[in-house]
Amino acid sequence: MNAKRILDFLQAVMANNNRPWFQEHKAEYDTVKVDFEQGVAQALQRIVKFDASVGNLQVKDCTYRFYRDTRFSPDKSPYKNHLGAYICAKGKKALRGGYYLHLEPGHCLLAVGSYWLPTDILTACRNEIMANEEEWLKCVENKQFRKYFDAPEDASWESPQGFGLEKLKTCPAGFPRDYAYLKYLRLKNYCAWHHVDDDFFEGDKWLDEMARVFQAAKPMMDFMNAVIDDYE
């Protein structure tokens, strides 16, 4: 994957996010799109070695449109400033957790897990944590998970790494306020992310590091997917 060419193009889009400019540079976009899809294909081949559930996926099942849906957004820029791929056995729109690649100038990252969950599933996940506390702690308080994602804190996509994008300010209704691991029950999603440098995706060595990052979070994701799968 020619990551430099991809990021250079995206940088140009950020400075010229309009249809006339894009039409003049459509051939460049087509080249970048092929570059990115080749990278996603490589990622798929690597991930399936430790997660056979994604073995049925093709690249087209994982990538997103570059054109923004501006109907309900105050930002009317027609194009995204990033390229992303979500590798999930049940598809891009599934609640089930998966693996995410994100290329954006100055904001490249790898992410794992479920970005958004409805309240009933969140409640079931919280109950599962309490019912299988020891197993859960093994998933999220081991050395490798903490190395790449850390513990739930007040983090955002801008943070170098994190676990849980949104949190309740207090204990969720119906759960004990004095629970020793309340920080995990307060999470409104079970998404973990790890930022990487812009040159991370150059060459082929990134596939090994990607695999290490994803495998560090896979037990956490599997724990939650065992609950989520009952609802899908």
Q: Summarize this, please?
A:
It contains 8 helices and 5 strands; from the N terminus they run αααβββαααβαβα.
What is the percentage of strand-forming residues?
5-15%
3D shape: globular
Cα radius of gyration in angstroms: 19 Å
Instruction: Extract low-pLDDT stretches.
Output: none
Structural class: alpha+beta
Reading the helices and strands in chain order gives HHHEEEHHHEHEH
* Span between termini: 34 Å
Which whole number gives the mean pLDDT?
95
Oligomer: single chain
Give a quick account of the main beta sheet: strands, pairing sense, barrel closure.
5 strands, antiparallel
Strand order of the largest sheet: 1-2-3-5-4
The share of residues in helices is: 40-55%
Helical segment count: 8
Question: How many E strands?
Answer: 5
